[in-house]
UniProtKB/TrEMBL annotation:
Example of a GO MF term: metalloendopeptidase activity
Species assigned in the record: Nocardioides anomalus
Keywords recorded for this protein, A-Z: Hydrolase, Membrane, Metalloprotease, Protease, Transmembrane, Transmembrane helix, Zinc
Domain PDZ as annotated: residue spans: 204-248
Localization annotation: Membrane
Name used for this protein in its record: Site-2 protease family protein
UniProt cross-references to InterPro entries, sorted A to Z: PDZ_6 (IPR041489), PDZ_sf (IPR036034), Pept_M50_Zn (IPR004387), Peptidase_M50 (IPR008915)
Topological relation to the membrane, as annotated: Multi-pass membrane protein
Cofactors: Zn(2+)
The family this protein is said to belong to: Belongs to the peptidase M50B family.
Transmembrane segments: 6-23, 362-382, 424-446
Any one cellular-component term (Gene Ontology): membrane
Superkingdom in the source lineage: Bacteria
Length: 452
């Protein structure tokens, strides 16, 4: 049964990602066709074709390597001299058109080859349907459509989880007089990354005072307690002074006396690394998962966006860490990025985990798919080719350039030639391929596992 659940988790994740890829490509294709563009191919995956079928002018299909997808929109690159030809004259003075056959420089040749491939099947009938001739805002809509779909998928999945199960990473303290959920047996310095007590650790004031989970704190040094925030402020302000604590257990009122300890603790949730010397008792209140609707989801996605931007900035560094883990130089960071292989493994382990209740499994799988979609969407908005953001940036620059020329009474500068950015695209594509391969190998050799 465990093996079947493991396989089911993998299949659910892989199918969800493939559906997301398909919807991403629809986000490009639908507006492209709506604006009159010609779409000749719609494929999920790369490599050899597994299945395809033509409907109208578009070929739909699936390829063997499920690591992405694409739609072929005719005329992404404007023509160069190779496509337009060069006007020359023969010995008799007659005008002739010759096609330039060679270029100098590796990047010039790459650009020339890309244009040639782009224009190989373009016919005169396609002239008014070429992508590069679209209005700049249409280009933005077409290219932003794909990643926007991924962001929308993430939004609806996050919203579904937050509105039903609640946000697993956002706990709120129960209202009213605080009920203790746990009591620290010992005092562990905030700077130490451990949870278990060790020999020589000092007993916590709460443990010495006999407090237990389930007790309700009713007073602190004679002050009636109505919330955990109030209790926490009193404890911190008490420093290492005497503390008389009133509490209820099973409906009976009790009083105990202890002394709080002076400890370096984080007091600002926005800056957890900044410590202050405050009073410490050693209790934690009962909490509940926060639930919310669309606005709450948007706020949480804003936080996720900040984390995603940071993750993208550090992506090369963190992939390098995975590479070092592969060769055994260091252990793999459990927070390091994973490929679709790692995501599939995590999904399988989640579905088959005996220590997780079913609602938690479903929630985790939904959040896993949502997280992948959010990252894919955000990553594709990076303004560099071959990513969608590179085409968006070209279209926006075209709008700015033409607008400035019009204001200054200058001739229309024409379309932006995205082909000139292809050298950057080749470098980016190579880097993305290398990082993908490192993560796939890492997920096979030094995988990340979920823990209970």
């Amino acid at each position: 049964m465990t093996s079947l659940l493991y396989i089911a988790g993998i299949l659910i994740f892989v199918v969800s990602i493939l559906v997301s890829i398909g919807l991403h490509e629809l986000g490009h294709m639908i507006p492209a066709k709506a604006f009159g563009g010609k779409v000749t191919q719609y494929f999920i995956g790369f490599g050899p074709t597994v299945w395809s079928r033509r409907r109208g002018e578009t070929e739909y299909g699936v390829k063997a390597i499920p690591l992405g997808g694409y739609v072929k929109i005719v005329g992404m690159l404007p023509p160069g001299a190779e496509q337009l030809g060069t006007v020359e004259y023969d010995d008799q003075g007659n005008q002739v058109t010759r096609i330039r056959k060679s270029n100098t420089g590796i990047f010039t040749q790459l650009i020339s080859d890309a244009r040639a491939a782009e224009w190989e099947l373009i016919t005169p009938a396609d002239d008014e349907r070429l992508f590069y001739k679209m209005a700049w805002w249409k280009k933005v809509v077409v290219m932003a459509g794909g990643p926007s779909v991924n962001i929308a998928i993430a939004f609806f999945l996050f919203w579904t989880v937050f509105a039903t199960y609640g946000n697993p990473t956002d706990d709120a303290v129960d209202s009213g007089a605080p009920v203790i959920s746990s009591v620290n047996k010992c005092v562990i310095p905030a700077s130490e990354q451990r949870t278990a007590c060790e020999a020589g650790d000092q007993l916590s004031p709460a443990f010495e005072a006999g407090l237990r989970p389930g007790d309700t704190i009713t007073s602190f040094n004679g002050t009636a307690i109505t919330s955990y925030d109030q209790l926490q402020e009193l404890i911190r302000a008490n420093k290492d002074g005497r503390a008389e604590i009133g509490y209820e257990r099973d409906g009976t009122a009790y009083t105990t006396t202890t002394s709080t300890l002076l400890q370096d603790r984080p007091v600002d949730t926005d800056h957890p690394d900044q410590l202050e010397s405050v009073g410490f008792l050693g209790v934690a209140p009962t909490t509940h998962r926060v639930t919310g609707g669309p606005l709450y989801t948007l706020v949480q996605m804003g936080y996720t966006a900040e984390q995603t931007v940071e993750a993208m900035v550090r992506l090369p560094e963190r992939v390098w860490g995975v590479a070092k883990a592969i060769v055994g130089v260091q252990d793999r960071d459990p927070e390091s990025p994973v490929s679709i292989v790692g995501g599939s493994r995590i999904a399988g382990e989640t579905a088959s985990a005996t220590w997780l209740p079913n609602d938690a499994k479903i929630t985790f799988l939904l959040l896993l798919v949502a997280g992948f979609n959010f990252f894919i969407g955000a990553f594709n908005f990076i303004p560099l080719l071959p990513l969608d953001g590179g085409h968006i940036a070209s279209a926006l620059w075209e709008a700015v350039r033409r607008g400035l020329a019009k204001l200054r009474g200058l001739p229309d500068p024409g379309f932006v030639d995205a082909a000139k950015l292809l050298p950057i695209a080749y470098v980016m594509a190579s880097a993305m391929l290398v990082m993908s391969l490192v993560l796939i190998v890492g997920d096979l050799v030094v995988p990340i596992h979920i823990t209970g």
